[in-house]
Write a structure and sequence with these properties.
By secondary structure, this protein is α/β, with parallel strands linked by helices. 47% of the residues lie in helices and 17% in strands.
């Protein structure tokens, strides 16, 4: 069995993984099966058909989803991804993880997620605009600044959010800046939003290294993924004095033991579309990168890249999940048994939702903050959450993921209990 097949088999049911994490937390917290069922099932789901007339005149049909997992603590919040691998179960899992992420970082949102099963690389900009606008129109009964606020994710960007905002606004008859976040700054976006997830990852990664007695200056790191999160995470690590020795993308990986020139590598990627062929580094496989003997490993691409088949090869002292769900439950156990410090996604990559919250607040107030203020507030939120999760892990004598999930689940459950039920 190849590595790709192994991984695909293990992550075929991400929603099962998310529910298993919830079950563990519910057991630790002493909640009954009724509470588990309430938190394990999405509050609302919508699946829509998204027709497209291509530039050639041909018609294609895509399937899109929007899932609102929980809204006990506020309006639903979550990204929109365009990927050929999108499934309803994946969207359900990501929506649940968003619920825990928002609760853990104490922002007044519930969790949501959206996705369209489409490979955006195969379509023109005009075609992607038509797909986005039709999808937005179809899900418009569910979204809104007080209901559900989409943001960019895999395969989408600030332009996607601008199209969504405009489509929704046209239906409402007036401009509604707060319906999406991650927009261009000139359309109500927040300074610092584009790099906020990466900055959050690095804030937590540096704190995690220090907790293991490793000084960031001179520490070594490998970053799996060189997209929205990985690219800027590599840059910020480099700026903090961490020697980034290996980087990968979906096409290949490169390594330079003396340290990669991140700025030069970024220019190479802009020119060629991949890290492959970077003249100042040696080519390696993605598996080699994951097994690199480094202080810090940042998986910052997609789900399930660290699994039962390769977790035993991971040599990093600290693993910080820049992506959502990059470590399967089996790999989780193996890494914890090996003494690896694993910082979970709901903590590590929460910088994006924090600055999305800042953007939403600014849009609702029609008053925008400076970049320094955004960065200061982001750092405060991330480091406060890191300290809370670390302390809770010590109290429970549990790994960071269990501690983080327990803190988040407890906050969501408490909100639900205080609100009560009616029938």
């Amino acid at each position: 069995m190849t590595t790709i097949e192994h991984t695909a088999a293990e992550i075929a049911h991400p929603f099962d993984d998310a529910r298993a994490q919830l079950r563990d937390a519910v057991t630790i917290l002493g909640y009954d099966d009724g509470m588990y069922e309430l938190l394990a099932n999405p509050r609302r789901e919508l699946t829509v058909a998204v027709p497209l007339r291509r530039d050639s005149g041909e018609m294609e049909l895509f399937i899109g989803h929007r899932v609102q997992h929980n809204v006990s603590r506020g309006p639903a919040k979550g990204g929109l991804r365009y990927s050929a691998d999108v499934t309803l179960d994946e969207v359900r899992a990501l929506a649940m993880w968003m619920t825990w992420k928002c609760a853990l970082l104490d922002v007044p949102y519930g969790g949501a997620k959206g996705g369209i099963r489409v490979d955006p690389r195969q379509y023109s900009r005009a075609e992607l605009e038509r797909i986005t606008r039709r999808y937005t129109s179809e899900i418009s009964p569910l979204i809104g600044p007080d209901h559900d606020i989409p943001a960019p994710d895999v395969g989408t960007d600030e332009q996607t959010m601008a199209w969504m905002m405009d489509t929704y606004s046209a239906q409402q008859g007036h401009t509604v800046l707060g319906v999406t976040t991650g927009k261009p700054v000139s359309l109500g976006g927040s300074l610092g939003r584009a790099t906020s997830t990466s900055r959050g990852v690095v804030h937590v990664a540096l704190a995690a290294l220090r907790s293991r007695g490793i000084k960031p200056q001179g520490a070594t790191a490998a970053v799996q993924g060189f997209g929205k999160v990985g690219r800027h995470a590599a840059r910020f690590l480099d700026e903090a004095g961490v020697r980034v020795v290996a980087v990968s993308d979906q096409y290949g990986a490169v390594r330079a033991d003396t340290g990669l020139g991140i700025a030069a590598l970024a220019r190479h990627v802009d020119a060629t579309g991949s890290v492959r062929g970077f003249a100042e580094a040696d080519a390696i496989s993605n598996e080699d990168l994951l097994a690199a003997d480094v202080d810090l490993l940042v998986p910052a691409a997609v789900e399930g890249v660290i699994h039962g088949g390769n977790a035993g090869q991971v040599k990093a002292t600290v693993v910080v999940e820049g992506a959502n769900g990059p470590t399967t439950p089996e790999a989780d156990r193996l890494l914890n048994d090996a003494g690896t410090l694993l910082v979970p996604d709901i903590l590590a990559n929460a910088g994006g939702v924090i600055v999305s919250y800042f953007e939403w607040v600014q849009a609702n107030q029609a008053y925008w903050w400076g970049a320094d203020e955004v960065e200061t507030r982001l750092a405060e939120h991330m480091l406060t959450a890191w300290e809370q999760v670390s302390a809770h892990a010590e109290k429970l004598r549990r790994p960071l993921r269990a501690a983080a999930t327990c803190l988040a689940v407890e906050r969501v459950a408490r909100a639900g209990q205080l609100r009560g039920l009616y029938s």
